[in-house]
Write a structure and sequence with these properties.
It is built from 25 helices and 16 strands. With 629 residues, it is α/β, with parallel strands linked by helices. A six-stranded parallel beta sheet has the order 6-5-4-7-8-9, with helices on both faces. The chain is globular and about 65 Å long.
Length: 629
């Protein structure tokens, strides 16, 4: 039942909301803190507060239109925005760098290659060949790392091999083809420093270069590398929500984005002798509980890990409640979204916190420095820590799992490869459905969950319901997916919420109207789908009846994702504006000016119904441009 006496924000997931409310006397979560933080700084919201030098912080107003140095609102806003996009791109580049190093380690040590098919496809796409698959792993990893480490004045070589050729031509025309990705981030920080660039348009163009780095390397290549070492995604039905947690096992919640970092650990906990260790302390074995995007990635590949993957419990702001069940014995973090709110709950419930990458170091976590030559040692240490945590805490904590949360069946495991295979090996069936108007178009609803766009997952869920009612197919990737699947939009019966045409398609193909591509990294997979659709029609991406929405974007990484979408030339809806509205020129460029530059634009609309109408209008305009009714 719902608790109406607690001061907490709303969730689209009502069972989660009632569970969090029932724990309010024991644990504080983001649901309570959202209310305490509801008063926001107006200068910060508009992006017109500058604290880059000791003259500040300067706050630009109509009466004081320039900071002490002379910077106006647009300069300040653009600097702040470029810094945020640079940081977001850096996060994703950190992930692809580590993933490439992990693939290289597999190659150099004759490690397990889960998918030679994925290796061969990527090798052919990049023009990298070797009859020895392990040597091919090394060559592919080296090519990616070489690009990442180039200076900014040397263009990355793989961009032209990965990106759609019409977009590459446009990027060259605009002068936004990126140099070495890490150097692009570096100069983004330099350019946005005190008394350097004051040109907001130049800084916005730099954001587009960073978006290309993010999308093609941090997103697309990370996925394709993960396919090699973790196995290709497989379309299947799987349970979701808190019901996946089984208290009879030693439960390890994983948070982050760097799935390949603990690939060998996953293999170890399946071994019979390791399962026996768990049984010796009273458990049935080990289970990984999916949470945040690494949980989505595990779910995507769950067919390969049935013995040890419990299922996906929820997204970033569900993670505190997952710990509050008392059934999790250890948290292994290796990146965001590992929120600080986990720490006091873990301390109270004696949950062991371990971090595998110091960029995600939590204050109460034990850091295990990643040494790829010591994976075996690290794996056994993690196993021992989990066993000891289980022994120390079970019997001392109350376990309360809402087993009625979530769904027994939710479609997952969709990728750009298997979706095409599902359609018969080409995109013609989808193109035909779009051409005849059965499906009006496609919207990628991607990115994070936040607590302020109507509440936890509220805008995301309501927007998707409005879109599918309009016969618009939704592809989802990111924490948004965790919210959508936990309310049943990827489960049998969801087709009943769709328009009559889309409903008929869903029933015929036995699919939901929202397709689960997995983690936020899988935005790169959706980009491949879009590029291949454009290639099949021989048109540029902005001409397609396709749009993006990151309704509840949260982090700087989401801004880098958004910059990629804008570089692709797609309309991008946000329920909350980025912190740019104090700069009229910056706002005009992003919402209108880009239409004549890349073809993309930012649409800000906090109302789901109105936003769905706008996205539909964008799709109809593109249909008209293609000569479709």
């Amino acid at each position: 039942m719902n608790c109406n006496t607690c001061k907490m924000c709303e969730s689209a997931d009502k069972r989660l909301e009632s569970f969090v409310a029932s724990k309010a006397g024991e644990f504080e979560t983001a649901f309570q803190r959202t209310i305490d933080q509801k008063v926001k700084c107006g200068f910060g919201l508009q992006g017109v507060c500058c604290r880059l030098c000791s003259n500040g912080p300067c706050r630009v107003t109509p009466k004081s239109p320039r900071g002490i140095c002379g910077a106006d609102a647009d300069t300040i806003v653009a600097r702040n925005f470029l810094r945020a996009v640079s940081a977001g791109a850096a996060c994703y580049l950190h992930v692809v760098e580590n993933t490439a190093l992990n693939v290289k380690h597999v190659g150099e040590n004759n490690g397990v290659i889960k998918s030679e098919k994925a290796l061969n496809i990527l090798g052919e796409e990049l023009g990298i060949f070797d009859d020895d698959p392990h040597k091919r792993c090394v060559k592919i990893a080296d090519a990616i790392l070489k690009d990442l480490y180039k200076p900014r004045y040397e263009k990355m070589e793989l961009v032209e091999k990965l990106a759609y050729h019409m977009r590459v031509d446009k990027w060259k025309e605009l002068g936004i083809m990126p140099g070495g990705a890490k150097s692009e981030v570096f100069d983004g920080c330099v350019k946005s420093s005190t008394n350097l660039s004051s040109d907001p348009v130049d800084m916005l163009m730099h954001c587009l270069s960073l978006g290309i780095c993010t999308g093609l390397y941090g997103l697309t290549l990370t996925n394709l590398l993960n396919d090699i070492v973790l196995g290709d995604p497989v379309i299947r039905m799987a349970p979701v929500g808190f019901r996946v947690i089984d208290e009879d096992y030693i439960n390890i919640m994983v948070t982050g984005h760097q799935h390949s970092t603990f690939a060998s650990f996953q293999e170890k906990i399946k071994l019979p002798e390791v399962v026996e260790v768990a049984k010796s302390v009273g458990a049935k074995g080990f289970r990984l509980v999916g949470c945040t995007c690494v949980g989505q990635d595990l779910q995507l590949r769950g067919e390969h890990y049935k013995e040890i993957f419990a299922g996906h419990a929820g997204n970033n702001y569900t993670s505190e409640a997952v710990l509050a069940t008392g059934a999790v014995d250890m948290v292994v973090s290796e990146f965001n979204c590992t929120i600080p709110g986990l720490e006091p709950i873990a301390d109270k419930l004696q949950v062991k916190m371990i971090c595998l990458d110091d960029v995600a170091k939590k204050k109460n976590a034990e850091l295990i420095q990643l040494d790829r030559d010591k994976f075996d040692e690290i794996d056994h240490r993690l196993i021992n820590e989990a066993v000891e945590a289980y022994k120390a805490r079970r019997g001392n904590v109350t376990i309360d799992i809402p087993k009625d949360h979530g769904y027994d069946e939710s479609l997952t495991g969709v990728s750009e490869k298997n979706l095409k295979e599902f359609l018969g090996g080409n995109w013609k069936p989808l193109i035909d459905l779009i051409a005849d108007g059965t499906i009006k178009g496609v919207v990628g609803v991607v990115g994070c969950s936040n607590m302020t766009a109507g509440g936890h997952d509220v805008h995301t869920v309501e927007l998707v319901k409005e879109l599918i009612k309009k016969d618009i197919l939704v592809l989802s990737a990111g924490c948004s997916t965790g919210g959508l699947e936990n309310v049943g939009l990827m489960s049998p019966g969801a087709e009943e919420l769709a328009g009559e045409n889309l409903k008929a398609v869903c029933k015929k193909l036995n699919i939901p109207p929202v397709l689960n591509f997995g983690p936020c990294l899988a935005i790169g997979r959706i980009e491949i789908v879009v590029s291949e659709l454009a290639a099949a029609l021989n048109v540029d991406i902005p001409q397609l009846p396709v749009a993006l929405s990151a309704p509840q974007w949260l982090e700087e990484q989401a801004l880098a994702d958004g910059a990629f979408g804008l570089a692709l030339g797609l309309p991008l809806h946000l329920a909350l504006p980025p912190f740019i509205t104090g700069g009229p020129l910056v706002t005009q460029v992003l919402t209108e000016g880009l239409k004549g530059i890349t073809g993309g634009s930012v649409i800000v609309d906090p109302d789901p119904e109105s936003a769905a109408n706008t996205l539909e209008s964008e799709i109809l305009d593109r249909r008209k441009g293609l000569g479709l009714k």
